[in-house]
Design brief:
284 residues, 8-stranded mixed β-sheet, 11 helices, 16% strand, alpha/beta, disordered C terminus
Length: 284
Amino acid sequence: MEKAETPPRPSGWEEKLSLGLFLALAPRLPRAAAPAPPEELRPFESVAVPRGGRRGPLAATWFPVEGPARGAVLLLHPWLAWGQAYFYRRGRIEALRAAGYHALTLDLGGFGGSGPRSGLFDRDVEAGLRLLRERAPGVPLHVWGVSSGGYWAHTVLSRSIGVAGAVFEDVSPHLLEWSWRTAPLGRPFYLVFRSVFRSTYRYLDIRRHAEALKVRAVAYVSGERDRGVRPEDTRTLASRAGGRAHIVPGAGHLGSIKVAQDEVIALALDTFRRAEEGERPGEL
């Protein structure tokens, strides 16, 4: 099936100005350094992810498998102060390793130990994928993104080949639509954003990017009681991407992995396996 075209990236000046307004409207978080991974996740290695230019590197942690690997997975965290440390619990890294996958976690710009934010966060996702390919040459790459981490991955995976499979938890079709429902006091400002930064608003509609994802297998997970990411939102993204949707009964935002950890992990591993059954993806 022919993939749809994605909205063009906003101009440099619009991206810079719209990012400022976006951050002003985003949930406030205290800056916090990510704690070290727990001992039970050894071996691991702290690494720096270069972003180029004057921007400082992103902080990341490499969790290799011992012996030959079948693939490597980039884990992208939600909008939480402790960044990549979100993945030190709930068994994702352990399950990936047991299945033969290297894992790379990173702090997006402005989170944990990373340098300041500079441009839309999809540029950080690109940087993480470049490092993942350097660390894991010759094996399939996958992405596992949660909430905002998965959201920003869409704008990368809709234009870049080289990633075989993707799993997304609790991802909204549009972050400002999520904000409209969860933080209604900001609605006048969301309307200003949509009116003034039309190109950025269109670019941030990941329904359009889901239709163009250049992956061979994809799955979406969300909770039945998530106010910001409704079940119909998850089903819409999965339908547009040609993937699977799994709604966890009784779960709220970021709650699916807590309520149905085994189900979510099994779906992710099965999605990566399905992606690997096709031909080898192109290089990044």
